[in-house]
Automatic annotation (TrEMBL), chain A:
Origin species: Paenibacillus cisolokensis
Transmembrane segments: 12-33, 73-97, 109-129, 141-161, 182-204, 250-271
PROSITE patterns (UniProt xref): ABC_TM1
Keywords carried by this UniProt record: Cell membrane, Membrane, Transmembrane, Transmembrane helix, Transport
UniProt xrefs under Gene3D superfamilies: MetI-like (1.10.3720.10)
Name listed for the protein in its UniProt record: Protein LplC
Family assignment from sequence similarity: Belongs to the binding-protein-dependent transport system permease family.
UniProtKB/TrEMBL annotation, chain B:
Lineage per the UniProt record: Bacteria, Bacillati, Bacillota, Bacilli, Bacillales
Coiled-coil segments on the chain, per record: none
Residue span, ABC transmembrane type-1 domain: 76-291
InterPro entries: MetI-like, MetI-like_sf
Protein name: Multiple-sugar transport system permease YteP
Transmembrane segments: 12-29, 75-101, 122-138, 177-198, 210-228, 268-289
Pfam families, alphabetized: BPD_transp_1
Primary subcellular site in the record, as a coarse category: membrane
Location of the protein in the cell: Cell membrane; Membrane
Keywords annotated in UniProt: Membrane, Transmembrane, Transmembrane helix, Transport
Recorded superkingdom: Bacteria
Topology within the bilayer: Multi-pass membrane protein
Gene3D superfamilies membership: MetI-like
Amino acid sequence: MVRGLEDKIFNAVSYTILALVGLVTVVPLLYVLSVSLTPYAEVLKNGGYVLFPKEITFNAYEKLLSNSAIPRAFQITIFVTVVGTAINLTLTALLAYPLSRKGMPGRRLFLFMVVFTLLFNGGIIPTYLIVKATGLIDTVWALIVPNAIWSFNVLVMKGFFENLPEEIFESARIDGAHEWRILLRIAVPLSIPSIMTIGLFYAVGHWNSFFAAIMYITDRSLFPLQVVVREILMMTQQPLENAEDMVPTVTMQMSAVIFASLPIIAVYPFLQKHFTKGMIIGSIKG
Amino acid sequence: MLRTLGRQIWKYRAYYLMLLPGIIYYAVYKYLPIYGIVIAFKDYDMLAGIANSPWADPWYKHFQAFYESPYFSQLLVNTVLISLYKLVFGMFPPIALAVLLNECRVDWFKRWVQTLSYMPHFLSWVIIYGILIVLLSQDSGIVNQLIAEFGGNPIPFLTSTEWFRSVLVGSEIWQNLGWGAIIYLAAMAGIDPTLYEAARVDGASRLRMIWHITLPGIRNVIVLLLILRLGQMMDAGFDQIYILYNIHVYPVADILDTWVFRTGLEQWNFSLAAAVGLFKSVIGLLLVLGSNSLAKKWGEGIW
């Protein structure tokens, strides 16, 4: 009897806390969305903020897209995400596969080469100087090449390849398949779900990438989305006249935030399973 | 001996060919920068390049300049304090969330909470900065409008030295609350279910089971993560701070990384910035090695 009551209290408290966690995540984003859609007239009438606009307007989005900086940045970010992820996955797989096979002379040395960079690196300034020396400054490749391989992902992918059953490789070798064929026809197809997971992390990394751009890009026409959105966020609030069709700065800013986060938010729920799996495998490996 | 090695290498030639692009990448973009650290001991001259720049006299000139500058203690204190705050305040919430999710018997509800709470992990700091503006900024933030409505004075959360570190810690917790819980949930899934069965037969309450079975079951993971986080103490969150901070909060928010970035890439003082970067990397390396050997003693290391 007592236990039943205790159970009920426990459930009530724990479900309340869990619901709060969910709300704390989603409410700020909904509020951002609401601000970006609220007509200025309604803000004026309410004297400050509106939680649920009675009418919505896409004025801020129109204004945002009519400024050429955002569509251009969007194109650059799409390019970097697609091409960058393809390069990331190719190079990571090419490195991880031989490292996952035993017997090759020098394997431990190459593995050390990868792991050591997780512990120690040249740091911001020397890396900048090398990127500059290789002629990438102010090219879109500066957003892709200097981070073409994440050591951590090499170790994770190597783990996937190691877990494939050895017999498959043996029988392929007996059938006379050479190593490239084994990689492309056996190892990669069998690891597709895992490679997809790593690809997702690379892609999100590119989409959200900010530092490569502010370090290596000064040409404004090459700025990716995150940098342009930050510039919009740095604008100070303009004093507004009482013109009702005005778009307040904060409304513009929030439309930029929604614009830049929408692809992630739209894709994320469908891929969450893969992300979570990657995290768990990564932390067991890591 | 050499012949057999040669034959071995020939046997694996396809592997070496596969490794080649990766090796070139690591050589150029990972190991050349490590060589580039020498500019910390030189007076870097852009025209002369890394190799031909003259050596600093004395060799520790830039390190001494940094040590004697007022920045030294400020940057070190900010870096370590912000890391520590994040560690201390950020550790408990994901554990608590994992416990509650683990106890949750309503599957759809559990999935919803998980899906929602993992999401902020994938939002960039630029996006989170936008969210913070609309919530906390002095003129348009909803929190300040509510404060004003109740007759209080607006609080400049994002530009005041008193509040800024709390904003850093709070937004970090918001971003990683759910994501941080995943690993504990995975650890809880590995706890032997017969333990709970036995406890239930003995009439233990759920709180007791959490205290005596669930938490001890993930104790190793908690300690391991704590140790590994200690190894990352020198990384206080470069991206987050650079995107969120502003000149008003430099005294409490400027960390080694942000200072190196500004000094090197905005003021073109490459050698001094590289010296400070090296100082940070070496301490970071020692911390990681120390924490890893500690973690190994505890059970398992990072590799």
